[in-house]
């Protein structure tokens, strides 16, 4: 059974001022320590507390909507759950296979054909070549790009590229869907199709975590809510209760 | 990442694990083997992509190496007053192995920096980025050595079963490169002054390694060679190929350097792996 167990997770981002990464500065700092020259904290790492003391448990069937202002920590939390950032405090247990539905276009090669990019992207997502081959027909069919898949993707329009990228991302199977904003791509017809596909994916998976500002969408998709404010949990519980906590616009 | 009894994968992370245990090392280094399909296929794609729409494709690598051989053969051999028949094979074999080391080391400075976007977006062990880069250079190296048999046909030297020893040497060079570039790429993403310094170091290494010269040819040559890890690696790879059995000291030096470096890499990787995403 899929499970996410976050215990007092904290994330501190080191923010290097331009100097902190330079050897010259380190040397000056070392020298000034000897000579007794006082250098204020300038040039040393500062930290941004992106997440602070986040605890929650998600079980099979839970659909969590992440809400909060820009910079509240929604994206960071999604990336922590995806295993990209290791928490600097607390602990995290994730049981089940992740399906990352964010930054879905990374690692594509302009010069390579659509088919080649399906394979590259599949490899990056951790699929074996056999698993990728099995999925190619399904992806090709969904993207509706026809013979274009034989051409280098630099010949695609941006809408066509998004179709391909989405089709690859949507072909990944797993128990935990992590989504940073609902994905809407393509023209009206394809948009409807992606919406249907995303609903299908979220319905069939064990756990969904969706960060969004769209309350209507969150009500349609999620049953739980987590309100982040300045990296801290302001409210966690049934979605409707959490949405009530948000400041009125 | 562990697999549970019902086939589910489990990931359990506790923050700020500074203690480097044997179990953590094993788990972190595992993608080297478990994900070899990924980094090999990605590297092959890189090479295909680079030589797309060219006539010779990756054989351009071989062609440029042949041109180097021609130029060096015509100019440098005479300049150093050496006999072409012995000098050119020595130089070309050394240069080909050196290029594998030098270009991997040079690229490693920017491996993690350039992969920053991907490191922050995909849950993929960062070792894969290094392995992809090394694999790319291995493919280039394999195209480069295609020139050696041609040189052998022009200036034949004696080879025998002893030449097979160079495969062991090559395995050592490979492990050396993987360990060194993993460490360098992690240092470079943290301290952005290192990449330009590294360029200078690579040039220095080129001149203090017996590539354009042989240890007997210059004053103090044997002394420099005794302190240079690259010289040991060259000795155990190049010498068997030239029909010479490397001395026991060369083997000991090469294996020693590789062992120490690999141990350092495993420690540094396990200790700082999870920090790289914050530095990238």
UniProtKB/TrEMBL annotation, chain A:
Keywords: ATP-binding, Nucleotide-binding, Transport. Gene3D superfamilies: P-loop containing nucleotide triphosphate hydrolases. Residues 26-249 form the ABC transporter domain. It comes from the Bacteria. Pfam families: ABC_tran (PF00005). One of its GO terms (molecular function) is ATP binding. InterPro entries: AAA+_ATPase (IPR003593), ABC_transporter-like_ATP-bd (IPR003439), ABC_transpr_TagH-like (IPR015860), Bact_Polysacc_Export_ATP-bd (IPR050683), P-loop_NTPase (IPR027417). PROSITE patterns: ABC_TRANSPORTER_2 (PS50893). Involved in beta-(1-->2)glucan export. Transmembrane domains (TMD) form a pore in the inner membrane and the ATP-binding domain (NBD) is responsible for energy generation. Belongs to the ABC transporter superfamily. PANTHER family: TEICHOIC ACIDS EXPORT ATP-BINDING PROTEIN TAGH. This is ABC transporter ATP-binding protein. The lineage of its organism: Bacteria, Pseudomonadati, Pseudomonadota, Alphaproteobacteria, Hyphomicrobiales.
Automatic annotation (TrEMBL), chain B:
Its main location: membrane. The chain crosses the membrane at residues 57-77, 97-117, 138-155, 161-189, 196-214, 248-269. It holds the Pfam family ABC2_membrane. Residues 39-238 form the ABC-2 type transporter transmembrane domain. Keywords: Cell membrane, Membrane, Polysaccharide transport, Sugar transport, Transmembrane, Transmembrane helix, Transport. Coiled coil: none annotated. It is a multi-pass membrane protein. It is found in: Cell membrane. Belongs to the ABC-2 integral membrane protein family. This is ABC transporter permease. It comes from Bradyrhizobium aeschynomenes. The lineage of its organism: Bacteria, Pseudomonadati, Pseudomonadota, Alphaproteobacteria, Hyphomicrobiales.
